[in-house]
Specification:
With about 55 residues, this protein is an alpha+beta fold. The protein has two helices and three strands; from the N terminus they run E-E-H-H-E. The protein has a three-stranded antiparallel beta sheet, covered by helices on one side. The longest helix is centred in the middle third of the chain and has 15 residues, at about 20-35. The termini are close together.
Length: about 55
């Protein structure tokens, strides 16, 4: 079963799909750096991202 994460930034339609939470977070970090450079991926933000990861 894979996992997915829809970008948590309002108005962004990006979706990340991967097999593990770690892969999702790695891709989310790359997406944030590219599309949302103003977004700080601090511990609280990472926890928010983890909470939005869904099984597909």
């Amino acid at each position: 079963m894979s996992k997915e994460l829809h970008c948590v930034v309002d108005g962004c339609e990006a979706t990340i799909e991967a097999e593990t939470e770690a892969e999702i977070l790695e891709q989310a970090e790359a997406h944030a750096a590219d599309a949302h450079p103003e977004l700080e991926l601090d511990e609280e933000t990472v926890e928010t991202l983890k909470g939005h990861i869904q099984e597909t």
